[in-house]
Every structure is written in structure tokens, then in C-alpha cells.
Amino acid sequence: MTQTDLSWVRTEMAQAMPAPAGERGLVAWVRKNLFASVGDTILTLLGLVLVALILPPIIDWAFVQAVWTGPDRTVCATIAQGGIQPDGWSGACWAFVNAKFGQFMFGRYPLEERWRPILVGILFVALLAPLLIPRVPHKGLNAVLFFLVLPIVAFILLVGGMFGLPHVETPLWGGLLVTLTLSFVGIVVSLPLGILLALGRRSRMPVVKTICIVFIETIRGIPLITVLFMASVMLPLFLPAGVTFDKFLRALIGVSLFAAAYMAEVVRGGLQAIPKGQYEGADSLGLSYWQKMYFIVLPQALKLVIPGIVNTFIGMFKDTSLVYIISMFDLLAIVRQNFSDASWASPQTPASGLIFAAVVFWLFCFGMSRYSMFMERRLDTGHKR
Amino acid sequence: MATENAVGAEELSVNTKKMHVSDTDVAIEIVGMHKWYGEFHVLKDINLKVMRGERIVICGPSGSGKSTMIRCINRLEEHQKGKIIVDGKELTNDLKKIDEVRREVGMVFQHFNLFPHLTILENCTLAPIWVRKIPKKQAEETAMHFLKRVKIPEQAHKYPGQLSGGQQQRVAIARSLCMNPRIMLFDEPTSALDPEMIKEVLETMVGLAEEGMTMLCVTHEMGFARKVANRVIFMDQGQIVEENTPVEFFDHPRHERTKLFLSQILH
Questions:
Q1: With contacts defined as CB-CB under 8 Å, which chain A residues touch B182?
Q2: B254: CB partners within 8 A, 6+ apart
Q3: pLDDT for A306-340, tens place per residue?
Q4: Hey, what's the torsion of the CAs at B91, B92, B94, B98, to 10 degrees?
Q5: Which domains does chain A possess?
Q6: ipTM for the whole complex
Q7: pLDDT of A384 strictly over 50
Q8: Probe site for chain B from A274, A280, A285 (most B CB atoms < 10 A)
Q9: CB contacts, 8 Å: A295 with chain B
Q10: What is the pLDDT of residues A131-141, one digit of tens each?
């Protein structure tokens, strides 16, 4: 039997070394992520083929062959169709969008008064941007200006009829102006109203609770189209003779109430997720009901349901298109209306117009989506209980 | 139950000099109080008189109603029969009275119930600013004073989730103290803590007792009860079964149920 010595002492500490070349850089990334196995390789290649099949025709249609400017339909039609393009040509007719851009934005808002919606738009952006950027100070003042002062100023500017501004009737409004006004009012009204409804639905007072449940379940059980129809056609029947109010205003109320009912259920989901201990902690400190809700429960509940809230906002933003059924012209409706303009009718016009409308809708919705993700990350103090 | 007696009596040093109990000034009076959860009779005929400066430990098996009882004292639970008078105010459905009582009664929970979206300092200043209407600056000074007392002033600007359990519970105690309460309720303050953190919380509570705070404490920390309590109350099946000074309670329990309970937790 030989005695083996089990002890061992390191004489020199090992130094950290760079990872082997195969683990770093672009090649390694590609190999790990795109060609890791036979299955991966096949999927990667299929994906590449798909992109190669789809992308070039789209780029070709939307950019290469596209017509950007022109006086009328001839630039967007082939010779056989009475235009100037060679036979077999196919490209986007951006000239149509270009020529109708003013209408797409403002509808039939009088040309000489269009500085008013433009000014409102500038004010809107100027007040919204600092509100969205967390680093900018004076959030309180900013919020007051945005949520209280701006609507009043916007109302005066857009409707007119006072301070020497000519009155512009709402049936003349249209395009993005209508879409954004409806959405903005819908968002600003539906969130606080939805919060109140959600709190009411969880209230211990039976009357409040019943009213909230009936409201929420009624509105949620009815299609938006029906709500809009009722607001536009049926509401006047219930009003005393001679009392009328603006159709646009009725649509605004309809959309806001509709969104509020959905918002209430989203917020209620958040309220239910807040542990009982938070309520008890607040109670034990002597906070009143509203203090408890405002400082403790709602900040946590709303943070939890940001995705749901933004989902409702996005849904509502797109649903505003439905006002076309009560003959109001939002962005989509006004684009479609212009298809029938004889001086621009061409096979390429509808696709171009619709794609333009889609891109505008997408930009707003994607913006909301990204901002909500940013806020989620920012508000995440990352700790539960 | 390994943590029942994690901190022995000998480990906590207590200075009894200032622990004065008033003979005449009643802090809490509970008379013939009953409570039901629906059909279930949880609390039966509770009678308890707590003098100012008194420190009472309540123990008993789980489900015996001890937490429910102290939660009745600040109306986190409603009682259906009998009287609860806190600091001279009887608890009824009168919301104003309830808020008045809650302002004077601090509570520390098993799971801390700190507000996770607020910093430690904000947790401590929220109620003083909005309930007591104290100027923000002054509230922050008070908060820092109490955070120093529970030995975590350096954590003031962190969020609760970044602290250990023991630290969070000390914040919860500081948060209650910032309201300058006359009575403190502790609902199993160490039951959710790792063994190592129990001691730091108990020391904070001993410090409070030494300053003459009226305390009601539901706990299984028998070392703490022995050293600090004036009275130990044993509850079972929703009623007070036995009540005595700690020495008598632990050394000569009289009721059979108490003897059984003590034999199971003191090993």
C-alpha cells in the first residue's frame, strides 16, 4: 500500500481569458441563433425565401414604380386606362394622397380657416410631448394645461363663433381631425370615468354598485355601432322638441361612454389584484377612502393594467372609424369617399389611399404601444408584496 | 415549529426603568364583545381592559381568534355585539370615530403591508402629511428620526422590495410611529421573518416598550413575552382562556388547554 498525498495547493491564480473565437462575434451569433440545428436551418432558409418573395414586389410597388406627384388620374393610369403609364405598369399612386392630403387631415374644414386645426395640432404636440417625457419638470401645470386648458382652447379654435372666429359647423370637420378629436376626448373621459365605475362596482353601497354594474353591463353588451346609432338617431327622440345638440358631440359622448365601460372592467381587474394587506395598511394609518384609493391602491392597480388600458385606447382609436355609419367622415371614411372622385379614379387609387390610412393608424397605435411599454418598465419598482 | 422560541428571553436585554403602567388611565376597554363571520362565531364574550403603558402579549393556537381580536381594536374587523372603547372613543359604524381611533392606534402586520410603489421615506410620511396635515418637511424630519431609531436611516430612499424582511418590518414599525400613536398593535410581527431577522425586530419592540408605549402583541415569541409583557393572554376557540403575569403564566399554567399549548411550544 502506497501512501497517496491528497493535499494540493494552487501556486498561481488563473487569470480570466477572452472566450474562444467561436463563441464571440457575428459568426457565432448566426450559428447559435439561425443555424443551430437542421430544423433551425430549414426555418431560417424558408424565412429568407419568404422575405425574398414578398419584400421586393412591395418595395417595387410602393417606392420604385410609385407616382409621387401629378395633377390628376392620368399619372396613375396606364395608356389603356386613359393615362400616361405604359401598359402593365403597377405602382402606388401617392400623387392621389398628395393632392388630397389637406382633405385627409381636415375634411371639408374651410381652407382659409385651416390654420385653426393646425394651431390646435401644434398646441397638442407641444403640450403632450413634455407630458410624456418623464424628465421634464412641472408635470402638474403641464397636466392642467393639457387636460383642462387645451380642450377649452381647442373647442374655441375649432368650433369658432366667438372672438371673431367664424363658426365652423362640425359636419364640415373630417379626416384625421375627427379621428384624433374623438380619440382624445374618448381617452380623457373614459379613463377617469372608467376608474370611477370600477370603484363603484366594488363599492359596498348597493345603490352605487347596482348603477355601475347596470351601466357597464349594458354598454358592454351592445355593439359600438348600436351605441352610435342610438346617440345619433334615438337620443333626439327622447329630448324635448326643439332641443338639439350637435351630432359630433353625440358621437363623442357615445364613444366615451363605450370606452369607459371597457376601461372600468380593465381597471377592476387591476383593483382585484391588489392584496388585501395594502388596503389594511392604508386603513390602519387612518387614510380616508379616497386617500387610500388615490395614494395606495390606484397607483398600483393602474400600473398593473397598463397593457389593458393601452389595449382599450388602441381599440377605441381604431373604432372611431365606425362613426362613418352616422355619416361622419373620419380619416378612413374620407379616404374612401375620395375613391369616387372622377378626376382621381384609377385602379391604383384605392390601394394607395387605404395603405396611407393604414400607415397613419399604425403610426399612432404603435406609438401608444411603445410608450406604454416604456412606462411599464419605468414604473416597475420590481418588487412585489 | 422551529421558530417559536427562536429568541430566548436571555438574549433580549430590557431596561424596565421607564415601563410605567398607569393605574387609572384606561387605554382600551373591551366589554362582552362577540364577533361572527356569517354563521361562524369567531369571538365569544371577550372582556379586556388595557391600562395606559401596559404591554400585553396574546398567544394561542392558530385559528383561536387572537388576530381577529386585535384587528377589532382598530376596526379592521367589525364586531357585532358588545363594546370596544379605545382611548375614550367607542367604536361604532361612525366613520369619523373610526378614523380618529385609527390615527391614535398604530398597527404592525405579519406581512408588513408596506406600500411597494413608494420609497421608505414616502411610506413613512404619507399618513402624517395627509391625515395629520403636517408640513412635508417636518414629516420627513420625523420620519428620519424614527428610521434612525429602527436603525435604517440609510435605506430611506430605497423601495420596500429592496430591503430584507427584518428591515421591512422595522420600516413598518417606524411608519406607524410617525403617526405618533398612543397605542401599538402587533399582529404576529415576526412570524414571516427568517430566524436571523427576528431578533432585530424584537429589539425594536423592546425599545418601544421601554419608552412606555401601550402595546398589544400577538406573538409566539415567548422570550419576548417573558421579558416585556405585564400580562400574557391565552386564547383558544375564540375566547380568552387564561390571563396572568408572564412568570405565573409560563411557570404555573392553570387551564388544561394552556398546559397543553405550552408543553407543545416550549421544548
A1: none
A2: B242, B244
A3: 889 999 999 988 888 888 888 888 888 888 888 88
A4: 30
A5: 22-64 (no CATH), 95-379 (1.10.3720.10)
A6: 0.89
A7: no
A8: A285
A9: 115, 126, 130
A10: 888 888 888 88
